[in-house]
Pyrophosphate--fructose 6-phosphate 1-phosphotransferase (Paenibacillus piri), 424 residues
Amino acid sequence: MVGHRTDRIMKGEDDMELTGSWTRYSKKIAVIQAGGPTAVLNSSLYGFLKEIVRMDRRTNVIGVHQGLSGLVNGDFFRLDMRQPLDWLKYQPGAVLGSGRMALSDTDLEIGVKQLKKADIHVVVLIGGNGTMWACSRLVSKAQEIGYGLQVIGIPKTVDNDIAGIDHTPGFPSAANFVAHAVRDLSIDLKAMKNFEQVRIIETMGRNVGWLTAASAFFKKQEEDGPHLVYVPEKPFDINEMISAVSDIQARLGYCVVVVSEGLKGESGQPIMMDGINGLKQNAGKKALGGVGSVLREAVSNELGLACRYENLGILQRCASFAVSKLDRIEAMVLGERAAQLIFQGESGCMVGIERLSEQPYSWDIRKIAFDKVAGLERELDSAYTNVTGTIDPSYRQWLSPFMSEAKSYKSLKTLSLLDMEETS
């Protein structure tokens, strides 16, 4: 992706006014937002709609309400493309309504028939790896029924677990939030170590550790928090963690631990199989969370230290104040490219980001067939987790293009302290 295009978008010079005469057009395109929202999910929708208008303003765009359940229920509505769309770039959440739903074979057949009933022959889905799996099945079911259907996917997820691409929109902004939050929580604990000695911070990420690893982005010295970072890709041993916490606290007076919600034991199963109070999502999988609370209790009981549990929660995926500017740009451009593929007659594929170079960071958009991503899960690269409990510095370099600048924090050592006798 050429740099001057990125500059124009950041300055607002790449925008366009949506005006002109309007007539209905026989070509109908349905757009669906599915799964957990991100802070830039609507940015992709904006890019998609803007490009549709640019290419053929007669196109009839149909919104599907509340994700895949809206597809099955036929909950469709026509989008008024004459209205200004600029606000979409900056609003978190999912303006069309989202949600989770595990599609059965019957659901898929009903969904295709709903599209046929509405005479919709093009569907664009914005979602995570579960949504891309649904895209793949939707293509197959339409072929089985004999209904002509174009299907294009636009990726999004804060977990960054979609295969075949460098990263997903939504992840950089979530990583930016996590990195800043953990740095500030570490500074806070350092100030209060005579009252509270250990802080266990839990992040999202499900079965992969990309987001959890971002917590160490601002760590420059050994004494900086987080001191221990545990990701699902490495089997977790609670006794090893307790021993490490004890050693670090004895040396520094405090210890910050960051853990993924999907932390796995030696058996390979998530420690919190029951999820948040047993909450089960409609997609057929548990809503993970609470592992930090279990570890807090273990540290307190085994070491007798004051330990607090902090769950960074839903803010990780929806904090508009932590959005990465580059994340928003990439999300919009992916939406634009998806619109272009429709008019080129493409189907059965997802658009994705390809990293062309590390320094300076450059990128482009490529298309990936659904069968290359459906049902797959991209784990955190093993090179970033060579040693259990630590994140390799090379991950910071990979992540750095997306992170907002932060003022460097100083320590007491940087103050010029006078001897007490000199002040008397």
